[in-house]
Design brief:
2 copies of one chain form a homodimer.
Chain A (H helix, E strand, L loop, with lengths): L2 H8 L17 E2 L4 H11 L11 H11 L2 E6 L7 E3 L6 E3 L6 E9 L6 E8 L4 E10 L2 E10 L7 E4 L2 E3 L1 H4 L12 H4 L4 E10 L5 E2 L2 E9 L9 E5 H8 L7 H8 L9 E2 L3 H14 L2 E6 L7 E3 L4 E3 L5 E10 L6 E9 L3 E10 L2 E10 L7 E4 L2 E3 L14 H5 L6 E8 L9 E8 L13 E4 L1 H7 L8 H11 L6
Parallel strand pairs in A: 6-12, 7-13, 21-26
Antiparallel strand pairs in A: 2-19, 3-4, 5-6, 5-16, 7-8, 7-10, 8-9, 8-14, 11-13, 17-18, 18-19, 19-20, 21-22, 21-24, 22-23, 22-27, 25-26
Helix pairs in contact in A: 2-6, 7-11
InterPro entries (chains A, B): EvaA-like (IPR005212), EvaA-like_sf (IPR038153)
Protein name (chains A, B): NDP-hexose 2,3-dehydratase family protein
Pfam family, one (chains A, B): Hexose_dehydrat
């Protein structure tokens, strides 16, 4: 069924009162000013209409116990359906679907490294990451899923309502239907509150985008034992715990309607957009897919593909046995990063207004040269052999504990990455650590400005979106 | 010099009063609410402080006469520095710069044509299209250039202040400096009012973007005989004449600050963005560059490369002799379309509010699947052999003259396209021509909504931007 058709059919039937009494019934306000207030109400609701926050870890443990779920590392030779393609050495599935592991050569005009080669995941199909919303007692609640992913260090975390690749929902692996999917594909079932294509890890994926959606259900939503309704305030509380809210949930939360005040900022939105345009223009990034067996500096063994110096990441493979997944068992490759990441925004109050120091980052897999990342995004152990330290890393690592406004360990997408953990932080800085005259490639922006950008695709990278989710949910109030 | 550095250096020194008395001097309003009003003032100024509108055609004739400028068609063999590359047959310049003519294979999942092959221009470097603004007698004026381009049917048209490829301004063809360029590259010289990367013709260019900029000069601007200051109202008047305002000027004008009312619309901005996301998602477009000599259905002669049925366009070459260009003579390839294009928005007042019927178009050269185009964008003669007519074409061609709200002939970029003319129209429609329940791929949007989208890259294609420039300039008031 055509989504466009179902969308326009639902069009004029759902007017918004705030268009004012003068507007005919088929018109609505172009901007919904009420929505951010409703989400703010959910963010201040420390408890919801269902599970209490303190009960969530126990509930997650229960779900973990209810499902047999075992992940074992296996040699590549034991992969079922996956093999190294003759000629290229690319790691591919016999169906031609899911994803492939290929090589990438990146050439760029700026930065300390002007050319590098690496393995990369090529997954062109666009998945849906969707959170379903419904009001209980006048407060919007989010339907979160207890979802197993083989790469998560604790296997099970809270995910969006729907987390589906196109292969998932078109049944490429012949499994069960994706629960609640129709709320996101059939516009008559819900009202869209956010819907935007966002990039994923540009260092590990070649031009991967997922569709981030928030949809409000218009009717009763049938319950299911692996799902629970939580307020934004409850999710915020859980974001303070390590490895509870998964990456897919965090990126969707970053797209949640945020305060609608226009506010003041060190740089106007026009200046911010202009700076971003100049960053996209000054970086000339050529990213070229090459055969995996032609990536210099990487070696393929029986159980892993590794960098010759043991840095960055390895390509490994696992077998998975599970009870509540779309299929009951499978094998697959995963990327396993070496070392713990550090991902942080330095923050300052400028004229009393909280600002974040954003970084225009080049990642080889981005669709378009640069996206905005946090101030610091690196794996320190990858830089130990270099004389130059990543900018601002020491300001984060040596910060007095009183300056750390947020700190938690989160893992990246457990469907593709194995134990890919990073310490996420907000750290208060001063003029010595982070001057108002930011160096080239960095700019002070407000959370509201980032929130306005995240409505559009490919402005904020996935790490910046994880940190933004701490602000949109109210987990961090700067 | 790093643009980012000069930008942040200029940062806190230029506060905006509308941030209010409570804001410290280094903060400014995130959104500049005053700017659209200043541009609206310029749009209502039918005459400016300098040349009168009726004098502009005479002034253009004078500039045309003052410069010797002759364009002659030549066989490919007489191209200087250009040749067909061995092996690929690509048409390339010996410097490796400027652009190349290659082949493209496009495979898509929707529409009447699921795969096609064609020649395409590959020009990866990002140019600057910039209009300089300055107030005279309290009214913003635009500095327009009388610029020769070999492909324009009348050779000389009004262009932006600056229209420079990176080859231009880094002196790849060793010519004169680009006049006024520093206003756009050195942030201390002006205040940026708009700055965004926009696509160009996706049917003729492979992923071409130009940087569209509007900059307000902070100091005196030295005059030059090929440039004149005009109000937006004067430019609007000239947009009613055939082939006066060139494409580069039109796309920059489309990015001009527009009325800041949020307004009402048939679909909220969130719904519009969601529809756009669903259009990007449902189209799977694979565009693959291939050697020019492997493009089936196209034949290379001594003077042109043509489609076997004589449709679409030809690749030709010309020699140029000019006095006021960066260099005094050169040869180059051009794309020469067959037939006159028709490019039109159907319009309707919905609940009293003007709406346009936008089309989510696939063009093979787009960076990302689809962009929003006008309701109709085609060359009718290319469709004469087909049974299916392009949707809404007949509603445009058969419209009663009383319904034509705007009509003018404009040409596309004269530096790459030869006599590429299209009739641009706004045509009032009714429920019979264009129902409120738009078919899949089409959506009713307001001019304000398009104006909000055009601040971000790759939402509106260049044809939609030409029509939007008629609205931002006030040439058309729906």
């Amino acid at each position: 069924m055509s989504r466009a058709a179902s969308f326009t059919a639902a069009g004029p039937a759902d007017p918004v009162g705030s268009a004012g009494p003068a507007a005919p019934f088929w018109l609505r306000a172009a901007l919904d000013r009420d929505l951010p207030h409703r989400f703010a109400r959910s963010a201040t609701a420390a408890e919801g209409a269902h599970l209490r926050t303190e009960e969530v870890p126990g509930w997650l443990d229960g779900r973990r116990a209810a499902h047999r779920f075992q992940v074992d590392r296996i040699p590549f030779a034991q992969l079922d359906g996956w093999s190294f393609q003759e000629g290229t050495g690319n790691l591919v599935h016999r169906s031609g679907r899911f994803f492939t592991v290929e090589g990438l050569r990146v050439t760029t005009t700026h930065g300390p490294h002007r050319q590098w080669h690496q393995p990369i995941i090529n997954q062109t199909e666009i998945g849906i990451l969707g959170i379903l919303v419904k009001e209980f007692d006048g407060v919007p609640h989010l339907l979160m899923q207890a979802k197993m992913e083989p790469g998560n260090p604790n296997l099970l975390q809270l995910s969006p309502t729907v987390q589906a690749t196109r292969s998932n929902y078109t049944k490429a692996h012949r499994g069960a239907d994706v629960r609640y999917l129709d709320y996101f594909t059939d516009r008559s079932r819900g009202r869209v509150l956010a819907d935007v294509l966002q990039s994923e890890h540009g260092s590990w994926f070649y031009r991967k985008s997922n569709r981030n959606m928030i949809v409000e259900a218009l009717d009763e939503v049938p319950p299911h034992e692996d799902f629970c309704w939580l307020t934004l305030g409850q999710v915020a509380e859980l974001l303070h715990r390590d490895n509870v809210i998964n990456m897919d949930a965090r990126t969707v939360l970053a797209c949640a309607p945020f305060a609608d005040a226009e506010g003041v900022a060190m740089h106007s939105d026009t200046e911010l957009l202009s700076w971003f345009t100049s960053e996209r223009t000054r970086h000339d990034v050529q990213a070229e897919r090459i055969p995996l067996n032609q990536v210099p500096g990487w070696e393929r063994g029986e159980r892993s593909i590794d960098h010759e110096d043991g840095r960055y990441f390895s390509v490994v493979s696992v077998s998975v046995h599970a009870g509540n997944r779309e299929v009951t068992g499978w094998t697959q490759p995963l990327f396993e990063p070496r070392g713990l990441g550090v991902t942080a925004f330095l923050t300052r109050r400028i004229g009393g207004v909280p600002h974040l120091l954003a970084h225009a980052r080049v990642e080889g897999g981005f669709a378009d040269t640069v996206e905005l990342g946090p101030t610091v995004q690196c794996t320190p152990s990858n830089h130990e052999h270099l004389t130059a330290r990543p900018p601002f890393l020491d300001a984060v690592l040596s910060a007095d504990p009183s300056r750390i406004r947020y700190e938690a360990l989160h893992s990246e997408e457990g469907g593709r990455f194995l134990n890919a953990e990073s310490r996420y932080l907000f750290v208060e800085a001063d003029e010595t650590d982070a001057p108002l005259q930011a160096p080239p490639g960095y700019l002070w922006v407000t959370p509201l400005q980032l929130s306005r950008l995240v409505r559009h695709n490919h402005y904020l990278n996935v790490q910046a979106r994880t940190l933004l989710s701490c602000l949109t949910s109210g987990a961090v109030r700067l």
